[in-house]
Amino acid sequence: MLAAPLQGVTDSVWRMAQHSVFGGVDAYYAPFMRVERGEVRRKDLRDVSPERNAGITLVPQILACQSDHALMMVEALKQMGYRHIDINLGCPFPPIALHRKGSGMLAFPDLTATLFQALATVQDVQYSVKMRLGWDRNDQWRDILPQLEIISPRHIAVHPRIGKQQYKGDLDMEQFEALLAASQWPVVYNGGLRSIQDIERTIQRYPTLAAVMVGSGLAANPGMFSPKATTDDYRRFHDLLVEGYTEQLNGGEAQLVRHLQDIWQTFLPGTDHKLFKAIRKSRTLDQYQNAAIAALNHVESALTQYATHVSS
User: Fold this and answer.
1) Which residue numbers in the chain have pLDDT < 50?
2) Distances from the Cα of 12 to the Cαs of 46, 117, 267, in angstroms?
3) Which of 33, 107, 121, 233 is the most buried (most CB within 10 A)?
């Protein structure tokens, strides 16, 4: 099982907590890193540092449309010891995609070819690609697939929507099946996997898949791959988040509380509305902790609500 990157959620603190308490993940894909003001963001480099990710298999991901920016990131990662790097051709958010990055690049095959050609010059590094079917058309993958020969990817992870859909609307399984049949590269499925049952159905339907990659489903329920997880396990997971962000964030208590509140936008979405509201209204760490503890005392109910919602 592969853990998909979720920007702002699946950072090193989250990854180490999930691995320590629940596990079941074969490799974690880090949220994309990028170049700003002529240098690789230091925050991104810290997040993928081997010291912060000890004991797990981590695949860093780069986001760039400019070859020099991509090479800058690859060289920095190579110096850290990474030999497998993921290329983001999937981010759907307009501030990214409208600058011809992420899924926005899929509408410009000349741009992706130039990027792949630059990356192929780096020795001793293998690439994988995370992509969508296209940016504004569901068949743009057909122009990209032949270009992959330039980098000979380990695999391509495909989310069967176009970028303009973001995370809304139906998954286009007809186009995904066409891509799967046409690809000479191993294909990983990503998208709409909210439960173990979803994963099992997908694997049964597409037995030639190289793997599945789970994102929002695992963020919602980090114990997805641990069927015997208890309420105490979810409390311990949360405690590790608080401990980790207390150490890493240097913006004081207010920043820590805001970040923890943001985690609950994806974590246990079946949480009772009143309990969730109390978390959102917290202004101090003590208030937050009291509200979070109350919510975590009802983990089983939250998970049942979530499972009922996603299966309906």
Assistant:
1) none
2) 9, 31, 16
3) 33
Kindly calculate the radius of gyration of the chain based on its CA atoms and give it in whole angstroms: 20
- Amino acid at site 207: P
- DSSP calls for 195-263: SHHHHHHHHHH-TT-SEEEESHHHHH-TTTT-TT--HHHHHHHHHHHHHHHHHH--SHHHHHHHHHHHH
CA 287 to chain centre: 30
Lookup: tokens for 34: 């990028």
pTM listed for this prediction: 0.95
Model pLDDT, residue 310: 65
Q: How far apart, in whole angstroms, are the C-alpha atoms of residue 126 and residue 84? A: 5
Among residues 235, 231, 245, 232, which one has the least CA distance to residue 285?
A: 245
pLDDT at 194: 92
- The beta strands (E) that lie in the chain are given as 2-3, 27-29, 35-36, 39-40, 58-59, 61-62, 84-89, 126-134, 156-162, 187-190, 211-214
DSSP 5: P
Query: Within 10 Å of residue 110's Cβ, how many Cβ atoms?
Result: 9
160: tokens are: 């069967």
Burial per residue of 4-30, b for 16 or more beta-carbon CB atoms within 10 angstroms, e otherwise: bbbeebbbbbbbbbbbebbebbebbbb
Are 100 and 108 contacting, i.e. CB atoms less than 8 angstroms apart?
Answer: yes
Are the beta carbons of 241 and 14 closer than 8 angstroms? yes
Give pLDDT, residue 114: 97
Q: What is the pLDDT of residues 224-237, one digit of tens each?
A: 999 899 999 999 99
